[in-house]
Amino acid sequence: MSAANDGDQSTYWESTDNSFPRWARIDLGTATSVDQIVLKVPAPTVWQTRVQTLSVQGGADGSSYSTVVASADHRSRWSVV
């Protein structure tokens, strides 16, 4: 799971058996207002353009979650930073 948040765009996280759903729990440490989530995928030299189906859930106690962003398809896009 460390590759999910290692800051290296050439690495990425997958579930151990490549099964669905794949998920990652991110603990922000305290209740925090979030207005943007950025999912950086490997550069186009590594990954071809693809569609990822994503949803976002949020919660305050680490065990109960509600949908913040409903499941939807998102096309990969890249920008030079």
Structure description:
With 81 residues, this protein is mainly beta. It contains no helices and two strands. Strand 1 and strand 2 form a beta hairpin. The mean pLDDT is 80. Residues 1-81 form the DOC domain.
What structural keywords apply?
81 residues; mainly beta; 2 strands
Give a brief outline of the structure.
This protein has 81 residues and is mainly beta.
- Whole-angstrom Rg: 14 Å
Structural class: mainly beta
Unreliable runs = none
Listing every helix as H and every strand as E from the N terminus to the C terminus, the arrangement reads EE
Oligomer: single chain
Percent helix, as a range, is: under 10%
Number of E strands: 2
Determine the mean pLDDT: 80
Alpha-carbon distance between the two ends: 24 Å
Main sheet: which strands, in order across?
A: 1-2
**How many strands, which pairing sense, and closed or not: the largest β-sheet?**
2 strands, antiparallel
Q: What fraction of the residues are assigned to beta strands by DSSP?
A: 15-25%
Q: What is the 3D form?
A: globular
Number of helices: 0
InterPro entries: APC_su10/DOC_dom, FA58C, Galactose-bd-like_sf
Domain DOC: 1-81
Protein name: F5/8 type C domain-containing protein
Domain F5/8 type C: 1-81
